[in-house]
Write a structure and sequence with these properties.
alpha/beta; 5-stranded mixed sheet; 10 helices; globular
């Protein structure tokens, strides 16, 4: 039963958690949303400085809530890729320092692998193989989880991620940052059939449509032109109807591709991870559609949809239990395919 202190600083959440196997003993998340809201998005340099200011207290608070001291830990983990390089460096250097001082193994964890493991916190009995729909501000992927560290990307967005599209459309509708939760809220009040919008499709070189890949830039452009047309008419912008129509189109695209992929690969369980996993429209539609096909869907609790250290600790605990550790020379990277997650570890 490996106990891990994990640090997550890949973007604009300063997070620390202590996880024992698949049990969360403490989880501290300090969001920087209010700081970055004035800029309409995350400013990397500002995010890094705030991580420096907040991380020490978050570590102390996490140990205090778990009622543990560092000697009772089995390892120290931190997100090392992908993410903002400066922010990643803050967390990784802190984790390496703790590992050196307390003579504990260090583990550098892939951020997307952490989102895969958020579902393990939802259902501790979950075991591969299963399909993971990973939907966030930076990633939209369908990943075949074969075993710990063995992942195959079966589908992905060719341009904007679903969460990125939510944020960009929110700007068009003057809803502020972050846009996803606000569009989700307004969609509950609007008519999802008010405006037919195009569902992005990815053509194959030899003809036909890719069954699992998606595209959202065309949808974003369609909303932009619709907004411009409505504004030019001089009428009030029907924001709730626009939000509902946009959300319905994104959800339809995600559900259709996810179900087809799960059925084609004979995977009976679908786990959803990432910030867009908190979207109520997606939760309702995917759960209902999967039940019709006899498939099981797992959504993390809201607190584990957005970036957090508990999911990083869960992934690290699994790796450490299998003898996987990372060298202290491991650096940070802004990008790395999740299929290469095992390159972060040296098996012992």
């Amino acid at each position: 039963m490996t106990t891990i202190l994990a640090i997550e600083t890949s973007c604009d959440e300063t997070a620390v958690a202590i996880v024992k196997k698949r049990q969360v003993l403490s989880s501290i998340v300090t969001s920087q949303i209010e700081t970055h809201r004035r800029y309409g998005g995350v400013v990397p340099e500002v995010a890094s400085r705030q991580h420096l200011e907040l991380l020490g207290e978050a570590i102390a608070q996490s140990l205090d809530e778990a009622k543990l001291d560092p000697s009772q830990l089995d390892g120290i983990a931190a997100t090392c890729t992908p993410g903002l390089v400066g922010s990643l460096l803050v967390g990784v250097m802190a984790a390496k320092t703790l590992a050196l001082v307390h003579e504990k193994p260090f583990l550098g964890v892939h951020h997307l692998e952490g989102h895969l493991y958020a579902s393990y916190l939802t259902d501790p009995s979950l075991e591969p193989p299963f399909l993971c729909l990973l939907v966030s501000g930076g990633h939209t992927s369908l990943i075949h989880v074969k075993r710990c560290g063995d992942y195959q990307t079966l589908g992905q967005t060719r341009d904007d991620a679903a969460g990125e599209a939510f944020d960009k459309v929110a700007r068009l509708l003057k809803l502020g940052y972050p846009g996803g939760p606000e569009i989700d809220r307004l969609a509950q009040q609007g008519n999802p059939d008010a405006f037919p919008l195009p569902e992005g499709r990815v053509k194959l070189p030899d003809g036909g449509i890719h069954p699992y890949d998606a595209s959202y830039s065309g949808l974003k452009t369609a909303v932009m032109r619709l907004v411009q047309k409505l504004e030019a008419s001089g009428s009030d912008l029907p924001v709730a109807d626009l939000a509902a129509s946009f959300q319905k189109t994104v959800v339809r695209s995600l559900v259709k591709r996810t179900l087809r992929c799960a059925l084609d690969y004979d995977l009976s369980t679908i786990a959803v991870g990432g910030g867009v996993a908190a979207n109520r429209g997606l939760r309702t539609a995917l759960t209902a559609a999967a039940e019709e096909q006899g498939l099981r869907v797992l959504f993390p609790p809201m607190s584990y949809c957005t970036d957090n250290a508990a999911m990083i600790g869960c992934a690290a605990s699994e790796h450490l239990s299998r003898g996987h550790t990372s060298p202290l020379s491991l650096g940070v990277r802004s990008r790395l395919p999740v299929s290469d997650a095992m390159t972060l570890y040296a098996q012992t």
